[in-house]
């Protein structure tokens, strides 16, 4: 924001997907500092909702679920034959695969990807959140999951015991 202010540039971040003609929301530049990390609010004619695992709408702020977008700009799908075109007008929702929440002001935030959640010993774990926590502590980390184990990659040598203890507390 400092560079934008200095050079009098209006920067407006946007969030979108090809399945919704590439833009679903934007964050007006005046909120860049107060809503840092937000994808903003939907474009005119669009609407977000957050759904839980059972596809029920979440109505409380800060509750994480999958972000679903609806609007006239949602891609109607691929057609392999003429029968695929019969229900094309009923397709106006797009499950983004992104996990997130909205705040008290109706601004939306992404916390990770739906396919980056794993379950170990009955605990639901977000791999994006592990990376975020470790990166905020100065580690440059990437993680993945294989054979019931979380695998962490670091750019430099770390204290493995310290990291395991820290993450087990989280």
Task: Write up what this structure looks like.
The protein is of the alpha+beta class and 170 residues long. The chain has helices at residues 2-7, 127-136, 160-169, and strands at residues 14-15, 25-26, 38-42, 47-51, 57-58, 65-70, 93-102, 108-113, 117-120, 123-126, 141-146, 149-154. It has an eight-stranded antiparallel β-sheet, with helices on one face. Strands 9-10 form a two-stranded antiparallel ribbon. The protein has a two-stranded antiparallel sheet with strand order 11-12. A hairpin with a 5-residue loop joins strand 7 (93-102) and strand 8 (108-113). The longest helix has 10 residues, at 127-136. The two termini are 32 Å apart.
Give the tags.
single chain; alpha+beta; eight-stranded antiparallel beta sheet; 34% strand
DSSP helical segment count: 3
- Apparent shape: globular
For the sheet with most strands, the description reads: 8 strands, antiparallel
Per DSSP, what share of the residues sits in E-state strands of 2 or more residues? Answer: 25-35%
**Cross-sheet strand order for the largest sheet:** 1-2-3-8-7-6-4-5
Number of strands: 12
How do the helices and strands line up, and which of them pair or pack?
Blueprint: H1 2-7, E1 14-15, E2 25-26, E3 38-42, E4 47-51, E5 57-58, E6 65-70, E7 93-102, E8 108-113, E9 117-120, E10 123-126, H2 127-136, E11 141-146, E12 149-154, H3 160-169
Antiparallel strand pairs: 1-2, 2-3, 3-8, 4-5, 4-6, 6-7, 7-8, 9-10, 11-12
Q: Quick summary of this structure?
A:
It contains 3 helices and 12 strands. 15% of the residues lie in helices and 34% in strands.
């Amino acid at each position: 924001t400092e560079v934008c202010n200095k050079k009098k540039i209006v920067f407006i971040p946007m969030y979108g997907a090809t399945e919704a003609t590439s833009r679903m929301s934007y964050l007006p530049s005046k909120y860049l500092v107060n809503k840092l990390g937000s994808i903003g609010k939907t474009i005119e004619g669009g609407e977000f909702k957050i759904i839980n695992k059972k596809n029920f709408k979440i109505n409380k702020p800060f509750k994480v679920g999958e972000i679903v977008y609806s609007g006239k700009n949602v891609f109607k799908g691929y057609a392999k034959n003429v029968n695929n075109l019969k229900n094309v007008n009923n397709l106006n929702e797009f499950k983004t695969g992104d996990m997130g929440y909205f705040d008290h002001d109706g601004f939306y935030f992404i916390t990770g990807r739906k396919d980056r959640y794993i379950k170990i010993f009955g605990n639901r774990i977000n791999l994006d959140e592990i990376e975020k926590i470790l990166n905020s502590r100065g580690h440059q980390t990437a993680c993945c999951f294989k054979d019931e184990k979380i695998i962490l990659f670091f750019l430099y040598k770390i204290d493995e015991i310290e990291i395991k203890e820290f993450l087990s507390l989280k």
